[in-house]
Amino acid sequence: MDEIASVGRETIVISSRSYSDNQGHGVISVPGGTDRKHPIPECRNINHNVHRAQGYGMSYTVDLITPDEKDRLTECCVPRVRYEIKSEIFGCCIKLITDEKGLAETWQENFSPMSQNIRSHGRLYVFKDPSVGENTVRFDPYSKTVFLSNFSYYGWIKSIALGLCGDILEDEHGISSIHGACVDVGGKGIGIVGMSGAGKTTQTYGLLRDPHARIISDDWFFTRIFGPEILAYGSERNFYIRQDLSAIWKEFDGLVAANEYDAEGRAVADIRWVVGKGRLLPLTTLGALIVLHRDPADPRIASPLEKDEAYDLFTANGYFNPHLLVKDSRKTALRNKYIKDILDRTNCFLINTTGTPKETQGQIRKVTGLGETE
Predict the structure, then answer these.
(1) Are residues 164 and 270 in the same domain?
(2) Beta carbons of 55 and 31 less than 8 angstroms apart
(3) 373 within a domain of the structure (yes/no)
(4) What percent of the chain has pLDDT above 90?
(5) What local confidence, expressed as pLDDT, does residue 39 receive?
(6) Exposed/middle/buried for 278, CB within 10 Å: 0-12, 13-18, 19+?
(7) Rounded to 5 degrees, what angle do the CA atoms 339, 343, 349 make?
(8) Statement to judge: residues 110 and 220 lie in one domain
(9) Domains in the chain: how many in total?
(10) Residue 57: what pLDDT?
(11) Cα gap 240→90, rounded to integer Å
(12) What's residue 184's pLDDT?
């Protein structure tokens, strides 16, 4: 129990905005914060420190709980369970447990199914709970069980599920997670990362206009190192896309019916209907990393990054991943090593997205040697 207490609790501040604009969103920054006491009511009746990471937009809290607390919360949820769905995420069996029909249906569209005979590696309980605030996450690291309370945005639910999967894989299999997109263009694997609002989604689907481009993931991918190479693997069966994507790239117009988008203007879509069945790949060899940021004050538009500079950017910005469930010293050491190993095997570039989407697309293609868009 002392190990959990030493980890503490964290409040992760992230933006619900996904549209790239010119209002300062997507600027790379170094998080900081303060500690405070935060009581958990009723069966969560303990006091604990909360670390607040500075950012913008909405937030969700991540409370690390004990196995005893997990057992009490499970007892509260069990009478309300209506749906239990096991899904496969890069070899992990992640089980969704909820009473929300719409969530269960969206989840099943998003992730690949897993045999019900397989025991789950991690579990997500998603329920409304009036005794706690909005967007509350409680995580037992021992049993890999997450309780999500009062979430309305599916994008965070699925990202926390991917974070849970990443937590399991980095501990037990030496596999790291990248919160970003991965596209293969002509056999070259390109990873795209950055702070929320920097334009990752826009530029990922911009690359897909190239007939030689194939997508591995548009939001989260896993990496494994084999000698001098890094293999990047996908995480989702179908993607959770933005409704306004077609306003930028007309090729994606009509991918989802207007009445199928949720309140956040997003929907899970099978993009095979637009790009073709053969253009979704399970893996690629990662050759380049693009770090996107949006900063009108930065005169740099496109520039290569030295290994040390890229490493500092990743570590100072939480690896560009606000959905990491545990952030103790052991996890930090693991992730720092992964990032060093990845950067040693890839070319990294910084792209400022203050221009138009097409201008930024041209810069990405230029630095990665892809040439002009056909």
Answers:
(1) no
(2) yes
(3) no
(4) 70
(5) 30
(6) exposed
(7) 120
(8) no
(9) 2
(10) 53
(11) 18
(12) 95
